Amino acid sequence: MGTSGDEENGVAGLGRPGGTGQVAGGWGNGDLGSSDDRAQFSALLEDSVEDLYEHAPCGYLSTLLDGRIAKVNTTLLDWLGYERDDLLGRRHFSDLLTVGGRLYHETHFAPLLGMQGEVSGIALELKAADGSRLPVLVTSTVRTGRDGRPLLIRTTLFDARDRRAYETELLRARKEAERERERLQRLAATLQKTLLPPTLANVPGLDVSAYYHIASVDEVGGDFYDLFPLAEGTWGLFLGDVCGKGAAAAAVTSLTRYTLRAAAVYNPDPDAVLRNLNTVLNHEYNGADPRFCTVIFGLLTPDPDRGGFHITLASGGHPPALLMRADGTTDYLPTPGGQLIGVLADAHIATTAVRLAPGDTLLLHTDGLTEAHVNAVDGVDRYGDDALLDFARTLAPTTASATVDAIRDLLDTFGSGVDDDTAVLAIHVPRPPSEELQ
């Protein structure tokens, strides 16, 4: 299509009857019919090159190769509060920079400009005549002659005060978020401690060790354990895992621990203890937000005739305990068919009983250990029950503290692959001193 002369000049439709050009200042309706209006408008479009340079919305600076200022525009002079004669031939560009800016200019900016011939978007600070600082973004290019020899340096400076204010506010917000996160982490850690026993009961003739591995410092986990005295000569122990994380899981964990201890005092039979817990959780959390847990409860009774302890275990959907014998044999204590606690009104509880002889060690754990992610080998991504059994076999015979230390080191090797909290509780019947010396 053809183009009118007005369009070539960038003012299509202006000055002609019915024109639709939009210009700020009252000429948006195309009413430029008078010669005076057209003359005034034309004058606005005919800025001189010098005026465009002097009053550009950015600072312009030309320097000799040694950095002496040869030319500067009015915009930059206004920003800094200098007269033109204060700078031309008397100051170097680096003289306008702060101390840190001068060091950066000498060690990085100028050498890079010399090698590349151009440096773009460098954040520096200028020092104004009154001592104030002006953040700017600096772009410099080296102008060369026809023979390729450098002649002078042209520099463009953009006012970065708004950007600096934005970055400062962003940094402030980030620090505030970090402080808030630290506060929440302290709160989560404090809450987590209240869900675990400060110390475990001292059981004569038994060594005990426990460890809690936190997968995330930002959330409270739902794993729990305890060992506590019951009637004279008996002790109760439990270890479990509440579904979910956070405050809701912490509330269920607190209720679960309290109920287990109270139910064991009322009737220490492990099957009865878990049935009482199931009734409480099913009653409290059977609405739109059901809550449940897996748990294993044990009743410890000393064996005065042969030494060691008898232990009866009841499981509600929990991973089986590991028994590491004094002779080195190791295997799971199966509790098949135990159902999650709190889901059904009448959950099936699986029980088993075993004697812990001198030198034996029993390990209870939550599934955060066996479900940890490991480097995929043969298509296996989770650590798994079989791997844990093989690992335990390398430890046996062992002690409670040695077992827990080994599990702690194992979890550390998984790193971020442990995405769920893990609790372990180990009990060990020491050999008589005469056998330990053999």
From TrEMBL:
**Occurrences of domain PAS (ranges):** 45-97
Record keyword Lipoprotein present: no
Record-given protein name? Histidine kinase
Q: Which InterPro entries match?
A: Bact_Sigma-Reg, PAS, PAS-like_dom_sf, PPM-type-like_dom_sf, PPM-type_phosphatase-like_dom
For molecular function, the Gene Ontology terms on record are:
kinase activity; phosphatase activity
Q: What keywords were assigned to this record?
A: Coiled coil, Hydrolase, Kinase, Transferase
What organism does the record attribute this protein to? Answer: Streptomyces dioscori
Region spans: Disordered: 1-29
Q: Which Pfam families match?
A: PAS_9 (PF13426), SpoIIE (PF07228)
- Gly residues biased stretches: 12-29
Coiled-coil features, chain-numbered ranges: 163-194
